[in-house]
Design a protein that fits this description.
Layout lengths: L8 H12 L5 H13 L1 H20 L6 H14 L2
Helix pairs in contact: 1-2, 1-3, 2-3
Bound molecules: zinc ion.
Length: about 80
């Protein structure tokens, strides 16, 4: 795998935090998105981390995208007794 524009899972996971914090730009961000498009396992991982991050962000009163917030709320409702 010598394609310069493709990163592997190890690299993707290393960049995961930066990606979630929107600290990746340009080429790095594109590589990450390319990897996520073809790698189901990293994609699920990122989705999980996103949700986790969104719920902690809510506690810190950081803005959460409305769509994401609605999804979390419905998730919470699902698990509420
Ligand atoms: Zn991967």
């Amino acid at each position: 795998m010598n394609e310069p524009h493709v990163i592997d899972c190890e690299e993707a996971l290393r960049r995961l935090v930066e990606y979630l914090d929107a600290e990746l730009h340009g080429e790095s961000q594109r590589q990450m998105e390319q990897h996520l498009e073809r790698c189901r396992s990293c994609f699920s991982r990122i989705e999980f981390e996103k949700r986790l991050k969104a719920s902690t962000a809510e506690l810190r009163h950081e803005p959460v995208p409305p769509e994401l917030e609605r999804r979390i709320r419905s998730l919470v409702d699902t698990f509420k007794c």
